[in-house]
Amino acid sequence: MERQFVSKEIVIELKNLGFNEPCFAHYRGNDIEMVASLGHEINTKTVIDDSSEDNYWIPVPLWQQVINWLREQHNLNIVINHEIYMKWWYDISQVAKSMDDYDDNFIHEYNEYYNSYEEALKDGILKSIEIIKEK
Q: CB of 32 within 8 A of CB of 48?
């Protein structure tokens, strides 16, 4: 089940960009724990500077939750593609608001192949975070 959630590295970057969505799980120390109810206020307790402390919670979203948030909040769309022999890559584009915007919407086109979908997705999200920070 842990494969469905983004890494702690990504969680910290997202938090710094204002990600504040309800999550099904959280990190407590370096472990992922499921949250019994979405009603928990897990975003209020985030001591992320001291990884030796086990008494903090960091919300950890699903990969798809992050993809949706990037599209809805920052107008970035990540597409994972594949070739034969199971090589993967990602493209990042701005969501076109009209046909006039469609031709110029690619922000980052692939320049590297990955051995798994998850590797391509992780780097696509990290590249999207980098793009947002540069704005």
A: no
Among 76, 103, 81, residue whose Cα is nearest residue 92:
76
Please check whether residues 57 and 98 belong to one and the same domain: no
Tokens of 16: 């710094």
Q: Quick count: other Cβ atoms within 10 Å of Cβ 104? A: 10
Q: Are residues 42 and 71 in the same domain?
A: no
Taking alpha carbons only, the member of 52, 65, 80, 50 closest to residue 20 is 65
How many percent of the chain have pLDDT more than 90? 41
- Please say if the pLDDT value at position 2 is more than 80: no
Residue numbers of the domain that contains 18: 2-61
Q: How far apart are CA 72 and CA 79, in angstroms?
A: 15
Provide the domain count of the chain: 2
